[in-house]
């Protein structure tokens, strides 16, 4: 795994998405892909191709952040430098200042969980630190009284992709089921909405909180061996 370069990533992204022989089995292209390649087809340089739409500030923009953040943190880079590089990566496809603030919070939380002293467990208040005081109080109260998940993510918070609600929603599941990773992931799935992207970010945080993966589920993935090799290469390079 070589050192990260946003221009190298952009070139690989373009090659992957425009290959004559399709390199992926997907039949649906998310809006940020469509926006990026609309601009690219107009001749804009890759760094200017990110599209600004109603859903640019969405949780899906955080999905590719964790590998970059983990690699840099494991290599000893200062948090501020890691956050800056992750923002640069984010803005290639998701140019949103609102989302960048959450990206900073996500990278900070990754660092907090990854680099904490052995045996130290953050409180729910600490895990919800990046959420506004009003929402933090409401979420902690919902956890305390064991409210229905669908009342929290469905009524209090929207289950849609928009980062304003999807970030506190996934943190709610992290805190509510902090000792039950599988239950956390299933609860996130059951409330619907943009549960795939929320689940990808939630899974990273659960893995770091517990220091392990859900191996039973992981081993059943179709591409488990290839993914495991990629994870091994990332860790070895760090």
Structure, described:
The chain is mainly alpha-helical and about 240 residues long. The chain contains 13 helices and no strands. It has helices spanning about 5-20, 30-40, 65-75, 80-95, 95-115, 125, 135-145, 150, 165-175, 180-190, 195-210, 215-220, 225-235. Helix 5 (about 95-115) runs parallel beside helix 11 and helix 9 (about 165-175) runs antiparallel to helix 10. The longest helix is centred in the middle third of the chain and has 18 residues, at about 95-115. The termini are close together. The mean pLDDT is about 95.
State the end-to-end CA separation: 9 Å
Q: What's the number of helices?
A: 13
Overall number of strands: 0
Q: How much beta, percentage-wise?
A: under 5%
Shape: globular
The sequence of SSEs as H and E is HHHHHHHHHHHHH
- What is the helix content? 55-70%
Largest sheet: none
**Global structural class:** mainly alpha
Gyration radius, to the nearest Å? 18 Å
Mean pLDDT: 95
Poorly predicted residue ranges: none
Question: Helices, strands, pairings?
Answer:
Elements: H1 6-18, H2 31-41, H3 65-74, H4 79-93, H5 97-114, H6 124-127, H7 133-144, H8 149-152, H9 163-176, H10 181-190, H11 195-210, H12 215-218, H13 224-237
């Amino acid at each position: 795994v070589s050192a990260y370069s946003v221009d190298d990533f952009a070139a690989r992204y373009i090659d992957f998405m425009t290959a004559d022989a399709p390199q992926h089995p997907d039949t649906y292209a998310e809006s940020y892909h469509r926006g990026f390649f609309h601009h690219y087809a107009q001749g804009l340089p890759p760094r200017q191709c990110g599209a600004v739409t109603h859903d640019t500030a969405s949780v899906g923009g955080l999905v590719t952040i964790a590998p970059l953040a983990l690699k840099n943190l494991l290599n000893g880079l200062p948090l501020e430098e890691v956050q800056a590089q992750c923002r640069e990566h984010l803005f290639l496809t998701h140019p949103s200042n609102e989302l960048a603030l959450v990206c900073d919070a996500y990278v900070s939380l990754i660092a907090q969980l990854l680099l904490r002293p052995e045996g130290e467990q953050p409180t729910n208040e600490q895990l919800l630190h990046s959420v506004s005081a009003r929402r933090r109080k409401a979420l902690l109260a919902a956890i305390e009284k064991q409210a229905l998940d669908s009342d929290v993510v469905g009524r209090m918070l929207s289950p849609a992709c928009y980062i304003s609600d999807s970030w506190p929603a996934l943190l709610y599941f992290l805190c509510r089921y902090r000792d039950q990773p599988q239950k956390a992931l299933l609860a996130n799935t059951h409330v619907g909405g943009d549960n795939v992207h929320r689940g990808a970010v939630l899974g990273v945080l659960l893995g770091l909180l517990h220091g392990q993966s859900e191996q039973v589920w992981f081993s059943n993935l179709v591409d488990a061996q290839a993914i495991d090799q990629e994870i091994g290469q990332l860790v070895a390079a760090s």
